[in-house]
Amino acid sequence: MKNHLWLILAFILVVGLAGHSQAQINLSAETAGPTGVPGNVMGHMADVLAEKKIANLQVAQGQTLTNSVRNVAQGKTDLASAPIILPFLLSRGVGPYGKIGKKKGAELAANLRALWTYNAGGFYGFAYANKGWKSWADFKGKTIWNGPPRGAALNNARSVGILAAGLKDGKDYKGVQQNWGQLMTTLVDGSVDGFILPSTWPHPYPTTMTAAGKINVFSLPKAAMESALAKKMFSVPGNIPIIVDRKDMGYEKSITLISEDNKLRGLGTAFTDVVHKKMSFDLVKKIVAAHISTLDRLKKRTAFMKAVGLAEMDPKKSSFCGKSTLKYHAGAAAAWKEAGYKLPACAQ
Q: Distance between CA 211 and CA 264 in Å, rounded?
């Protein structure tokens, strides 16, 4: 009998220790490549949620976020990195969600809720300095790498060419599209003349280019950023203005900024991370509270994370509200408010 009691006590002890050593639940997550802003945010949260024993976040990297957002809306994935434009397109059943249709798209989009804000930097023009390009006009007639074969990044890059100098892909220049995984090689192999790329400062893309030679970075002209066309573009959910002072860019000797006033202007891409509306209030509140409490640590994760709009509550800078109907999850809103942040009423 004593032997049986010892076995029972030992079993209880082992089970108890196992429960304390592991996160309480498993959650699935999808994000883009690990080196970019979305991948760093999601990777950070996987670390933090495990440390705080809130959840074991199983992250799939290098995903097509168009599919990831739909997977969350369908309840197939728990969290996903989401350009703000995607829930908007899904709600209308257009663009990459055209086959879903407006009715079904609206139903799926209504399932999405936001956790926090950030951006993936701005889109700018890049070319090696030895080409001698002095303005956006020099992009005309050239081969320009401008994104993956489809998606929000390609649309934004094409929009930047139009906004900068009326340059249309296929008419004024030959756009080259490749998957993100091929870009790092293309940056240095000389197979294209120039690039329209998203970048933060610093970032792996300009760093890779400067390893092969000095480069010019082309700002959107100030007049273009203040034009009627710009206002129209910035009214599209997910599009935000990004302005960076030259002193904050880095790369002092290896990059020349082409700008009339020493400021780098670009079309930025606003992001959030989304969950299904049915995720429990308490779980979401714990997740977001963990995010808020480790923001300083997240800003130190890479050199560029300090300037990507973390915890930005201004609806114009975060692209909430307006034409976007995406709301914060109630648990997320509660966590932000308890931490002293003021959320826009239109996003709650």
A: 21
C-alpha distances in angstroms, 32 versus 41, 43, 92, 125?
A: 10, 11, 24, 22
Number of folded domains that form the chain: 2
> Can you read off the two tokens belonging to residue 315?
């609806």
Q: Are residues 54 and 171 in the same domain?
A: no
Would you say 314 and 323 are in contact if contact means Cβ atoms under 8 Å apart? no
Phi-psi region of 195 (alpha: psi -120 to 50; beta: other; left: phi over 0): beta
Dump pLDDT digits (tens) for 1-60. Answer: 444 444 443 444 444 444 444 457 999 999 988 888 999 999 999 999 999 999 999 999
Q: Label residue 335 exposed, middle or buried (CB < 10 Å: 0-12, 13-18, 19+).
A: buried
* Per-residue pLDDT reduced to its tens digit, 188-221: 999 999 999 999 998 889 999 999 999 999 999 9
Residue span of the structural domain in which 32 resides: 21-119+270-347
Q: What is the CATH number of the domain that holds 135?
A: 3.40.190.10
Q: How many CB atoms lie within 10 A of CB 167?
A: 23
- Cα 132 → chain centroid: 32
Whether residue 244 is contained in a domain is answered as: yes
Are residues 184 and 223 part of one domain? yes
Q: Is residue 67 part of a domain?
A: yes
